[in-house]
Amino acid sequence: MKLYDFHGAPSPKRVRVFLAEKGIEIPTEEVNLREGAQNTPEFRAVNPSCTVPVLELDDGTRICEAIAICRYFEATTPEPPLMGIDARDAAVVAMWEHRCEQDGYMAVADALRNSAPRMKGRALPGPVGYEQIPALAERSKVRVGHFFEMLDRRLAMDAFVAGPRYSVADITALVAVEFAGRVDLAIPESCRHAQRWHREVSARPSAAA
Amino acid sequence: MKLYDFHGAPSPKRVRVFLAEKGIEIPTEEVNLREGAQNTPEFRAVNPSCTVPVLELDDGTRICEAIAICRYFEATTPEPPLMGIDARDAAVVAMWEHRCEQDGYMAVADALRNSAPRMKGRALPGPVGYEQIPALAERSKVRVGHFFEMLDRRLAMDAFVAGPRYSVADITALVAVEFAGRVDLAIPESCRHAQRWHREVSARPSAAA
Question: Is A56 helix (H, G, I), strand (E, B) or coil?
Fold first, then answer.
């Protein structure tokens, strides 16, 4: 088993934090996205979508997409549960994880990829080149602001994003918040519930993974 | 238990097809998105994100996001399995479902919402008004074309999107393909594997849900 990883990118961090919370250690191979290692013929043979993370199982199966890799380890190493403790809780966790990904993580990705000079011609991950759309970067920054406010309302009600227990929804939200720093956006001081949560989840050892 | 639904929108269809495959029938309430019923104070109290589908459980818990609702029913009604039969398969299904959602379904949504006159000022779902970005509509149409090609390469290898068994990944892909019709995009004739798959999944009784 091997994880194709890159420490400079947010998506594989979602998996690393998840593994750290589970106490799982597996071999990794660094794919330097800054140097374009994802576009080599060797890596395209691993993942034609040219993204990390990729989990390679011993039977050769390759699992791409961070949430799918987490799903694998939740099934093989159920403790501690990070994707819900029963049917209802699993659905609540999936809801918040998906929302944090779409409204937080993806909004930050759109803001960054459509504005950063080094992303010119690569406004979406993958093998196809797409031109940047500056108006999308601006709109996405507004979305990120609304995401912070949504997080704050949510975290006024519970200790963690999906309820009283730490879950994969916290991981996606944490990585989205860190990622937002790259477009100079941060949880506003006024969002004190989200600030409290961010301090707490950032202080867990897994956050350094 | 009740499902807030709307027959004119693609997202709740993902849940309806899933329920039909499971043979589950539950009460539904139609929320007419065309008439703005998602923005009324009554519905905002149900889902502040102003989207359907929403599953309301008997204890009052509300599950939003199509994939989270599917997750609930997969746990409570495991047969037939639509989200994988073991850890490896569950991860493979989750990977393809996520990819079809991001590269297919979301690309179509961006294409439609950033171009349709009736979506003016509502380029993203939810309570916040966002202006349309015509360049994003155009870029998204290109993405949908690449999605069809990706589907075709995938379906050259297996009967269904995530392997030899019908799964939730087929449902997301099917709804994305149907949704693409609204921006006048269809699987090209040259994508004969994707065409074959589309004929087969469209012929299942669940496709009419």
Answer: strand
**B209 interfacial to chain A (CB closer than 8 Å):** no
Predicted TM-score (pTM) above 0.95: yes
Question: A108 pLDDT band (50/70/90 cuts)?
Answer: very high
Residues facing B122 on adjacent strands: B130
How far is the C-alpha of A2 from the C-alpha of B2, rounded, in Å?
43
The Cα B100–Cα B94 span in angstroms is 10
The dihedrals phi and psi of B156, each to the nearest 5 degrees, come to -75, -20
Q: Do residue B87 and residue A75 have CB atoms under 8 angstroms apart?
A: yes
Please give the ipTM for the structure prediction.
0.97
Best of A95, A136, A147, A168 to substitute, by most chain B Cβ atoms within 10 angstroms, is: A95
Chain A contacts of B143, Cβ < 8 Å?
124, 128, 130
For residue A76, give the nearest of B87, B124, B133 by CB distance: B87
Contact B176, B198 (CB under 8 A): no
Chain A contact for B61 (CB, 8 A cutoff): yes
| Farthest CA pair distance, chain B | 50
Contact A167, A82 (CB under 8 A): yes
Q: How far apart, in whole angstroms, are the C-alpha atoms of residue A147 and residue A141?
A: 10
